[in-house]
Write a structure and sequence with these properties.
alpha/beta, Arc Repressor Mutant, subunit A, 3 domains
């Protein structure tokens, strides 16, 4: 559990950064963790001008709170603060002095990733995942509504989608500009995001997006970087180490939250989703995101596709060795495609799976295990090494 990992880290390192999208519960978790500690807490919200003004001379202000656990919310809004924290930490190197909360990837905020090297540990607070669902929320509702707590627990699907619409508008009109200190066109960002939804799980082609949006390919790639840095999309890269065949080498792009995906596709209910042409890609992205959140840090995820069309939806890799090939199917009675068997022959993994919504475990041809998402996450994924 992430909270336990954060508490352990705070007992070992001076600063911990909790990263994740807005509205996912970072502030609530940080305050709860700090309240359990032995030291008093100081909370500063850097979206408030009054709190930013306190940090005009960050060193002098924070120096007087050596005995506090200082929480700095939306810390990426003041990038220079990271370099100011370094001498404070070095002067009084005590575990758990700072908790930094951020809604943007440090890699995209200039100066952040280098300033506190060796002094900070980064942790990501993800959306509510499959194994965290309360008993009153079904896996199908989770797939449809996504993992933002407010959307997931809304009274009705309409309330859920209205909340997601507000979130999208906030990102488009304000948040991305604020998070990364840039000026982006709201209309282009919205259209770009909608295009990504309609091509969810497809191989990335910057030129197609650029022509449709009337901007350059480098600008489109920059927009993708910002959406990924804001934890809204995920790039799944192809596996092509030691490959002898001609392979696709561009990544696939997925909308990370299915609630946002379905709102962008104007899908208003689970029944609508099940009849939608994008349902298969939606389920594929959902499964991949759940695996990302549950996998051990030692394992990496890729996909495999040759120029001839052979494809494997997901390849789980340990080091430079593919250890599992996975086909993802939105049916509990799947058939194994010829392309999947060819992928298995190319990659020679130890394990082969087809993941379905709710089928019982059984073995298909050539040792392929058909399993449900729950069984894969609980039983099979932890056993992969």
């Amino acid at each position: 559990m992430l909270q336990v990992d954060i508490e352990k880290a705070l007992r070992k390192v001076p600063a911990v950064a909790i990263l994740g999208p807005r509205q996912v519960g970072k502030t609530t978790m940080a305050k709860m963790i700090a309240a359990k500690g032995k030291t008093a807490m100081l909370y500063l919200d850097l979206e408030k001008s009054t709190d930013r003004n306190k940090l005009a001379d960050a060193h002098s202000y924070l120096e007087q709170y050596q005995d506090r656990c200082v929480i700095l919310d939306e810390a990426q809004l003041m990038p220079h603060l990271f370099s100011a924290l370094r001498p404070l930490i070095d002067e009084y190197r005590k575990p758990g002095r700072f908790i930094l909360l951020g809604s943007a990837s440090p890699a995209l905020v200039k100066g952040v990733s280098e300033s506190l090297a060796g002094r900070i540990r980064y942790m990501e607070l993800n959306l509510v995942n499959f194994l965290e669902l309360p008993q009153n929320i079904t896996s199908q509702k989770h797939w449809f509504r996504g993992g933002f707590p407010n959307a997931l627990t809304a009274k009705t699907d309409k309330d859920s989608q209205e909340w997601i619409s507000d979130l999208i508008s906030s990102y488009v009109e304000r948040d991305l500009n604020v998070l990364f200190g840039v000026i982006l066109s709201p209309s282009i960002i919205r259209n770009f995001w909608r295009m990504l939804a309609h091509s969810n799980g497809n191989v990335w082609n910057a030129e197609i997006f650029a022509r449709s949006l009337g901007i350059t390919a480098p600008t489109v790639l920059r927009y993708l970087d910002f959406l990924e840095g804001g934890f809204m999309v995920r790039r799944l890269f192809p596996w092509y180490v030691n490959a002898k065949k001609r392979l696709v080498k561009s990544p696939k792009v997925y909308i990370r939250d299915n609630g946002i995906l379905h709102r962008m596709l104007n899908v208003h209910s689970l029944d609508d989703l099940l009849g939608h042409p994008g349902a298969g890609a939606s389920w594929e992205g959902y499964v991949i995101e759940q695996i990302y959140q549950q996998k051990p840090a030692s394992l990496e995820l890729f996909f495999y596709r040759t120029q001839a069309g052979t494809e494997c939806d997901l390849v789980i890799v340990s080091g430079i060795k593919p250890i599992a090939c996975i086909e993802i199917k939105l049916t509990n009675a799947p058939t194994v495609s010829k392309g999947f068997y060819t992928s298995i022959a190319d990659l020679n993994p130890k394990k082969k799976f087809i993941i379905t919504p709710a089928s019982d475990d059984y073995s298909a041809k050539d040792g392929v295990i058909v399993t449900s998402l729950r069984q894969f996450l609980v039983k099979h994924l932890p056993a992969l090494k």
